[in-house]
Amino acid sequence: MQQVNLGMIGGGTVGSGVFHALQLNGGLMASRIGVKVNVRKVVVKAFDEPRPYPIPKSAMTTDWQSVVNDPQVDVVAELAGGTTFARTMILAALKLGKPVVTANKALLSAHGEELFAAAQQYGTNLYYEASVCGGIPIIKALREGFVGNRITHLYGIVNGTCNYILTRMKLEGADFTAVLKDAQAQGYAEAEPSLDVDGYDAQHKIGILASLAHGFWVKPEDIYVEGIRGITRTDIQFANQLGYTIKLLGIIKRVEGRGAKGGGTGASKPSPHARVQVSVYPTLVPNTHVLASVNHVFNAVFVRGDVVGDTLFYGRGAGKDATASAVLSDLADAALDLKFGTKHRVPPFVPHERDGAVAPINEVISRYFVRLDVVDRPGVLAQIAAIFGQARIGISSVIQPEGHEGASVPLILMLHDAPNGAVSRALAKIGKLAAVKSAPVMIRVEDLC
Ligand SMILES: NC(=O)c1ccc[n+]([C@@H]2O[C@H](COP(=O)([O-])OP(=O)(O)OC[C@H]3O[C@@H](n4cnc5c(N)ncnc54)[C@H](OP(=O)(O)O)[C@@H]3O)[C@@H](O)[C@H]2O)c1
User: Fold this and answer.
1) What's the CATH fold of domain 140-316?
2) pTM
3) How many Å apart are CA 302 and CA 299, to the nearest integer?
4) How far is the CA of 286 from the centre of ligand 1 (A)?
5) Where would I find the H helices in 233-319?
6) How far is the C-alpha of 84 from the C-alpha of 298, rounded, in Å?
7) Å from CA of 165 to ligand 1 middle
8) CATH number for the domain whose boundaries are 364-445
9) Closest approach atom of ligand 1 to CA 78
10) Whether residue 205 lies in the annotated active site
């Protein structure tokens, strides 16, 4: 049987997971694809670091150059993380014409365009299934399974930490800070949680998916991002009362025409150029929609194609084993491409949409949940309604719960479809009213239909 030698850079959570999975199922994989993947060396920083799965000292080295440059190494897997060392190492491997597998979403988000161009230039390939949603094969689905579709909508719960926190806030009626602290103690959130809770990890992943789905590079700075720090248990409770669950959603939607809503399945005529909403923010999702039931650390991606209709992918978005499964899938592709000499059978990324552009968030249209803290006196609602009316923004429902004590009471409004910019401007005015006691909270609503 043909053999492919793998040089692994990184033997931590993902790296040791890959080492273990190859020991467990490498034979099975070989029997399926007709190529055996052998681990030749694993690069680490220090031999004695604790690892989720053991790697024999004889298999480890601290010298990455000796691994990348080893003529016996056919494929390189970058499982180290970061955006400096990893970039240098991947470029060095690609220059030697070696295929590279990476799990590094931060690197692809920052330097993907350069790395894919280098792969093309040096006649090799860069595989990245593990960079988005761990064990869910969403890259393969978009790139190959939906190759005959125009992707009109993609909604993703792509950050397990945020989903875990929001799930517990809803189920336990708990505050963000308390749940975050507990999640950190249990290892579900990092000691420095910003990458997750402020939405940047989701931004990296949604940027990769948007680029792949729409055929042009979506830059991180073009993606509108809001995290979940501002979500309170009050928001979660009122959203639930209205029939919604709050999820951190990555949203990728084709926008037909300036300021218009995304098109539906099949029926609308697609515009010649992709104009796409690409954003990450807390979103009210109907309790009846399947995404509302994706709980704890699980991820899910809902994809609508103009031919296939609605599809859903669900699974673990991180962790040593789930992520290793995705890396093994890429290793199988790399091994098959080497076996058959088909280096570009699977295009890593094809920038085919020269005129594609991200729609500015102010032009994006959605519905809204608004929470205000107001002084409970006659005429306040009329003042607020007048500002929305002047901005031509319709109010679809109002809740002012009874029995609240103190200087202010919550006032919940649901707004009809309106551009983000118009709603933001109206809320800025409302926030200045004497009767409004704190900054208005605005959460977008997606009906996902
Ligand atoms: N963890 C997940 O669930 C997950 C899921 C999807 C994607 N990813 C991505 O996978 C990548 C790896 O994540 P991880 O969680 O496995 O990280 P990790 O546990 O910190 O492991 C990193 C590994 O790389 C080695 N390393 C780091 N810098 C190095 C250097 N300069 N020279 C030599 N070795 C170096 C470390 O060596 P030592 O062992 O000696 O420290 C360690 O073995 C990241 O890009 C991450 O975003 C992770």
Assistant:
1) Dihydrodipicolinate Reductase; domain 2 (3.30.360)
2) 0.95
3) 10
4) 37
5) 233-241
6) 30
7) 24
8) 3.30.70.260
9) 11
10) yes
